[in-house]
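Usage

Read records sequentially. Each one opens with the input sequence:
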Amino acid sequence: MFHRGLDERTHDFGCRVRKWVRTLPLTPLIIDDIKQLIRSSGSVGANYIEANESLGKKDCGKCMKICRKEAKESGHWLRMLDIRQSAEHEKERQALIQESHELTCIFHSIITKYYS
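and closes with the structure output:
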């Protein structure tokens, strides 16, 4: 139903987050934040797939709203995990924050255009 590139982009976002969190020190303080980030980043793509397989316009709109919510939540957890291990680590964190923001904007646009 929607753009194939967004399907790949949401999948890549979840994969990049997983790769990035593997570089983090596993201290008790951040383990819960990491779990939340992994859940929300994977949920963006999972809900996009569900939107494309929806039972109707209302169901699709609901899934798109969840995509937007999860993308926004991923940005929150990425900002919470400000560990500053290295310049390269921080560069990828900032890139992931930017991607979560862009995905949020894309889903907001879709919702506004098709489901408002």
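Summary fields computed downstream for this record:
- The chain has a mean pLDDT of 93.
- The domain at 4-114 is CATH 1.20.1440.60 (de novo design (two linked rop proteins)).
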